[in-house]
Amino acid sequence: MNFEPYRQILTKYWGFTSFRPLQEEIIGSIAEGRDTLGLMPTGGGKSITFQVYALSKEGICLVITPLIALMKDQVNRLNSLEIRSMAIHSGMSREEIDIALENAIYGDYKFLYVSPERVSTRIFQARVPRLNLNLVAVDEAHCISQWGYDFRPSYLKISSIRELIPKTVPFLALTASATSHVAEDIMEKLNFRESNLLKTSFERKNISYLVRRAEDKGTYLINTLQKAGGSGIVYVRSRKRCKEIAELLVSKGINADFYHAGLPVELRDKKQISWTTGETRVIVATNAFGMGIDKAEVRFVIHWEMPDSIEEYFQESGRAGRDGKPAYAVLLYSPSDKTRLEDSMRRKFPPVEKIKDIYEALCNFLQVPMGAGKDNVFDFNMPEFVSKFRLPVIETFNSLSFLQREGYIEFTEEIDNPSRVHFIVGRDDLYKFQVANESFDGFIKLLLRSYTGMFSEFVPVNEDALAKKSALTRENVYRFLVKLSTLGIIKYIPGKKTSVVIFTEERLERKALLISPDTYLKVRERYADRLNKMIDYADYNTRCRSVILLEYFGEEADRCGICDVCRERNELDLSKYEFDLILDEIKDILAEQKYDTRELVSKVNHPEDKVIKVLRWLLDHNKIIMDEKHLLLWKEQDLFSH
Q1: Phi (first) and psi of residue 569, to 5 degrees
Q2: Cα–Cα dist 575/175, whole Å
Q3: Is the overall model pTM greater than 0.85, yes or no?
Q4: Using CB atoms within 10 A as the burial measure, which of 21, 70, 81, 180 is most buried?
Q5: Could you tell me the sign of the dihedral formed by the alpha carbons of 31, 33, 38, 42, in that order?
Q6: Would residue 547 count as lying in a domain?
Q7: Whether residues 619 and 599 fall in one domain
Q8: Residues 558-585 pLDDT 10s
C-alpha cells in the first residue's frame, strides 16, 4: 500500500514527517475497509489515525467520544488547522443539534464529534443515513465492555448505526488500556465483521515503576521533589487534598500549582498551559488532568493515593517519559490505603433500596412525571440536590453512577458552555432592520465584525470580549443580545456551567426499576477484582513491577531491571540467571523438608556467598520463614513467580 498521501497529510497539518508505531498499520487496515480495534497506550497518538485517514477521503468522519471537554478541545484544534469540524453533545439545545446536523449533511465538514448518548436519539438516527460518512471512529472503546473499568450502556447502542449506513464504511475502535478479554468484548459489541486487533506493546522501557511505602507521604514527597529534576504530575483523589498538597509544596519552595474539574475553564486552561510550557514545574491534580496533554518531557508521575484499577494507574502513569528518556512512575503506599480502598468499596456500592430512593428523589427534583422524560436533558445541580434531600454526597454520586450503568440515566461531567448566537433572519431582512432601528445598527455590525458563520449555525460568543471592543458594559451587551433575541433577529443562548442528566428511559415506578441482585453482585465482584489486582501490585515486593503490569494486559515480559524490586535484586550483585537458579534450587530443597540455615546452604550447589545473599533476600521478603525450632520453610504453597 502507498502511504505517501497519508504522510503528506500528516506533514501538512501536524508537521510530522513520519508516523508513530502502529499509526500507519491502523490507517492501512481501515483503508482496506476493515473494522479495526487499535490498542495504543496513552500518548500514542490515537486521534491522528482517524483524522489523517478521514482527510484523505471524500465525506465526513463520525467520532464518538464520552469526554465532552476532549471533544471540544479536538474540534477547536482541528478548526484552528482550517479543518472544518463540529461537536454535538448533551449540553446543546434541540435547535442547535438540528442546525448542526443539517450543516454536517450539506456543509463542507470533515469531522462530526458526537457523545454516545446522542447516537440513539431519533433526531440523530433520522439524519445518519444522509451523512456521507467515510469512517466511524469510537474513542474510549473500553466503555462498551461490562468487563471494562468504565462501562457505559450508551456505548452498546453505537452498533445500531451499522443498519443505517453503507456496509462499506469501516469502524475504528480506539482505547489506551484494555485486557484481552475486554478487547474481544469490544469487537463483539461493535459487530465487527471479523476480529481485527492491532496493538503495540504496553511495555515502557524508559519508565522506572516504584512503590514507596510511606506513612508520612508529605515529607517523602517534599524530599523527593527537592532532589528530583524536571517537571511532573502528582495525582490525588480529592479536590480538597489537591489544593492542600500544592500549597504544602509551595510553602517548601517547590514551584507547584493545583488542577481539578471544579475550577473555571479559563483558569484550568491557564494552569495547564503554564505547566505545559514549563512555567509551573509540578501540577497536583485529580484525574481530570490528563485529557489532551501534549507534553513529552514529563520526568515523573507520582500517585499520592492508589487508583481503583491497574487500567487507570497505567494510563495516568503513562504520561511520564513520552520523549523516551528515563522517567519515574511512583505509587505512595501506606497500610491505611488498603483500609481506605476497602471502605470506598462499601460506599461505591450502596444498597439497592438506597439506589432506588435516590432515583425517586432525582425524578422529583427534576420534576419528571411518571412515564415521561425519555431522551430529555436536564441541567443538574448536584450540591443543590444533595442539600435539598439531605443525602450523603459520595453515596449519591455512586447511586447515580449505578443507575447509569443499568441504562436508566446518563450522568455527564460538568459542561462549560459558552454563550451562542445564531442569526435567524437573512442578510436582506437584517439590513432592513438595521436601517429601521438605528440604535441596534452599531451593535449588529460589532457582532458581524467579531464572528463569522452566524447565519448558518450557532457561534460561541464572549460577552466580556464584546464589551471591551465596544466600550459597553457587559450588562449592556447582554441586554442587546436578549433584546435582539426577543425581536426575532437572533437566537441567543446564554452561557452556563452545569452537569447534565439525561433520562435514557421514561420515569418508572419504583417496583419497575429493575436492579437485579445478580447484576449488582457481578459488577461488585468485577470492581473488587480490579481493586485487588491494584492492591497486589502495591503489596508485592518480590515481583518486577513492569512484569505485573504487562501480564495484566496479557503480555509476557522479562524483568525490567529498573523498578524498585529489580533494583533491590540487582544490588545482590547476581545476574538474573544466577539468582533464579539458586532460588529454584532452594525452593526444591525446602519442598522436601525443613532445614536449618547451615544445612540448607551446604545442600545448594552454588558458591556459599551467593546462596547466602539469595537466602537473606528471601527471608527479608518473607518468602522463607523460620519456625520455633529455627528451621527454614517455604512460606507460599503456590509456585513462586519471579
Answers
A1: -65, -40
A2: 37
A3: no
A4: 70
A5: positive
A6: no
A7: yes
A8: 888 889 988 887 766 677 777 888 888 8
